[in-house]
Design a protein that fits this description.
Aspartate Aminotransferase, domain 1; Aspartate Aminotransferase, domain 2; 3 domains; seven-stranded mixed sheet; four-stranded antiparallel sheet; 20 helices; 17 strands; Threonine aldolase
Length: 470
């Protein structure tokens, strides 16, 4: 009897797994993973089992996370459980079932209405669509609230983040109204580079924090809730009531410890590589956000999902390079979308070459200027770190100049300046050096010099001025 023909989805999955190189986080076979965990136990000196989430690697994991994020932590087997527990505790303590969160929050989009059905919570939308939360959004919700949840980053909007100042102002607004601020920090590890602050300082803005161990850290499963001692004690109680205090969580905890040791130190490099890839893509591929805030972003292009995925399957099999995940139809007719999450394997790849594969996939091509920026034999991290050298050697038609800019204070300003200057005709490279409170600078690479009046006008529209000594 003939086996049924595999679907395109199944064939794409098999082709992705078979690739020798990958932009995305790679996962070994179960046997390889468990071999690695055994070796990790020896390396980390783990000789004791955890029992009902006490002692052993669970206790060690809670201690390490508490040290990184600056407050006591409780291990949870599930992020869904952990988030509902956090909001329930805040609602019970406040005597108020009303909580605010983005309409794109994971709790509302993917959890089958659990917060309302199981915890009797009344949900108010803090933001709608691709908005980052600010105090103004909170002020627009009248009346008492038990809690305000912010998702850092907001994944379904392309993993976007507020500025640190915006988050601090929102936290102050919550304190003034007696509202508990809860951070959904499933990807807080990936968000640190955007904020430019220690993890403990970011987490310290909130009353409570949730984080995940199986996303950026690559653990098998698991999560943690963090807060003050009383909150953590209540969280442990609710974990037990909801069946989350498992007899053994050893494998999950050890894998999370390995992620903290081996993956966390490289997440910032993955964010830089993601930005290099986004900058190298042709104009026909739209990136959300335009400058990635984390190592995850969305790509949009014109096309039909079946046609693009059929070409993707052929490219994966030909190159043995997982440069794109499958695409799906976007909300905009005639366009497709896919999510990019950069893993450590990408650091050994050239972002320009990967961008070329993506361009070919969606029926586009890199411009002459973008092709000339390739430097074979170097990784994308090398290229990003030596932009001036690479562009001057790689393109005889290019000129590079520096613009000194006043009025820049944060990473959002960097994004605004990069987009404003990058949209000028003939400009195909902008690298900003932020100096908050003083004069910042932008290195611009273009086909020819840009008139000063054009630069002044462009920056003025974006809310900045050219320094007098430019």
């Amino acid at each position: 009897m003939d086996e049924p023909e595999k679907s395109l989805k199944e064939r794409l999955r098999e082709a992705m797994i078979a690739c020798r190189e990958s932009v995305f986080p790679a996962y070994a076979s179960p046997a390889e993973v468990f071999d690695g965990l055994a070796e990790a136990c020896r390396e980390l000196g783990i000789e004791e089992w955890d029992v009902y989430a006490e002692r052993g690697p669970v206790a060690r994991l809670e201690a390490e996370v508490a040290d990184l994020l600056g407050r006591p932590a409780a291990y949870f087997p599930s992020g869904v459980m952990a988030q509902q527990v956090a909001l329930r505790i805040h609602a019970d303590n406040a005597g108020n079932r009303r909580v605010a969160m983005p309409d794109l929050s994971h709790l509302l989009v993917y959890e089958d209405d659990g917060p309302r059905i199981l915890q009797d919570l009344r949900i108010e939308h803090l933001t709608t669509g691709r908005e980052t939360p600010t105090k103004a959004h909170l002020d627009a919700i009248p009346g008492p609230l038990a809690a305000c949840l912010v998702e850092l980053p907001l994944r379904d909007a392309g993993c976007i983040l507020p500025t640190f100042d915006e988050l601090a102002e929102l936290a102050q607004g919550c304190r003034e109204r007696g509202i508990a601020l809860h951070i959904d920090g499933a990807r807080i590890w990936e968000s640190q580079q955007w904020f430019g602050k220690p993890l403990a300082e970011i987490a310290g803005l909130a009353d409570t924090v949730y984080t995940s161990f199986y996303k950026g850290l690559g653990g098998l499963a698991g999560a943690a809730l963090l807060g003050d001692d009383d909150f953590v004690a209540q969280a442990r109680l609710w974990r037990h009531r909801m069946g989350g205090t498992h007899f053994r969580s050893t494998a999950e905890a050890v894998s999370a410890l390995v992620g903290l040791r081996d993956r966390l130190p490289h997440i910032g490099e993955c964010v830089t590589w993601a930005r290099a890839l986004a900058a190298a893509l042709p104009p026909s591929v739209t990136v959300q956000p335009p400058v990635p805030h984390t190592n995850t972003f969305l790509m949009y292009a014109a096309g039909d999902s079946d046609a693009v995925n059929t070409r993707l399957l052929a490219a994966l099999e030909e190159h043995s390079l997982a440069f794109s995940r499958p695409w799906k139809a976007s909300d905009e007719p005639g366009r497709v979308v896919t999510e990019v999450t950069v893993g450590q394997g990408a650091l050994e790849l050239d972002a320009e070459i990967v961008a070329g594969h993506i361009a070919a996939l969606v029926g586009s091509r890199l411009s002459r200027e973008r092709r000339s920026k390739r430097l074979h034999g170097h990784t994308a991290g090398d290229i990003f770190g030596r932009t001036s050298e690479v562009l001057l050697k790689g393109s005889l038609m290019s000129v590079q100049f520096e613009v000194r800019i006043d009025g820049m204070t944060c990473s959002r300003c960097v994004e605004s300046v990069t987009n404003a200057l990058g949209d000028l005709d003939g400009v195909h490279g902008v690298e900003v050096d932020l100096n908050p409170g003083a004069t910042s600078s932008a290195r611009v690479t273009a086909d020819e010099p840009v008139e000063p009046r054009v630069l002044r006008s462009t920056l003025a529209k974006a809310g900045f001025t050219i320094a007098r000594d430019t």
